[in-house]
Amino acid sequence: MSLPSDFSMYYSGTVVRAQGGLPFIIQGVDRGNGPREALTSLRFTGDLIIDGSGNRERAVFAYSDVDFNLPTLGWRMIGGKARWVTYRPYKTVKKGIHPVRLANFHDRDFTRENIYQLFQSFPGRISDDWCTVGNDLLFKGSIVGTKLEDESLQLLSAARYLQPRLEAQVTSTPITIQ
Predict the structure, then answer these.
(1) Sign (positive/negative) of CA torsion 51, 127, 94, 40?
(2) Over the stretch 116-172, which tens digit does the pLDDT of each residue have?
C-alpha cells in the first residue's frame, strides 16, 4: 500500500485538529507535490468545523498543518447536556476521533455540532474529570457532592477520598465533607 492509502485507511471519516485547534473531519488523503513517499507531501481534504452551530468550510491541509494528537476528553457539553466522554480501551484501525473509539458517545451523536464540542470547554466544567451541573458535583460521570449557594463545594462522605484531587483543581473554593 502507498502512504496516502495507509493514511486514508487510518484517518478517513475521523476528526483531528487543524488550523487554530479547530476540528477537521478528514474525508480524503492524497499526495501533493513533493517526494513520492514523504509525509510532507500528504494532503488531507475534508470539512473544517468553524463554530458550535456546525458550520463548516471545505479545506485542504498539508501534513504539517494537521495535529494527529487526540484531545484529552472528559466532561463535554453534548446535545445540551454535560456528558462524561472518554476513549474506549480497545484497538481499532481508526486513529482519529471516531464514534467507535469513544465511550458514552454514540453514532447518532457524531454530528458537526457535537464534534465541535469535543474540542471545547463549557461553564461548570472544572477540569476534564470534574464539573458541576445545576447543584450536582460530578467526578468522571458520577455524582460525588453538591455545589452550595455560596459557590463552595461539598463532597459526599463516601467520596472524601477525592478531596485532595478536587483541592488540586479548585484552589480558591472552599470544600467540605457532608
Answers:
(1) positive
(2) 999 888 888 999 899 999 899 999 989 999 999 898 999 999 999 999 999 999 988
Residues in contact with 174: Cβ distance below 8 Å, sequence separation at least 6, in sequence order? 152, 153
C-alpha to C-alpha distance for 58 and 48, rounded to whole angstroms:
6
Rounded Cα distance between 164 and 92, Å, is: 35
Q: Write the DSSP string, 126-150.
A: -SSSEEEETTEEEETTEEEEEE-TT
Rg for the chain, CA atoms, rounded: 20
124 belongs to a structural domain: no
Residues 30, 86: one domain?
no
**Which residues constitute the domain of residue 7?**
3-67
Of the candidates 3, 5, 8, the one whose C-alpha atom is nearest the C-alpha of residue 96 is 8
- Do residues 45 and 90 share a domain? no
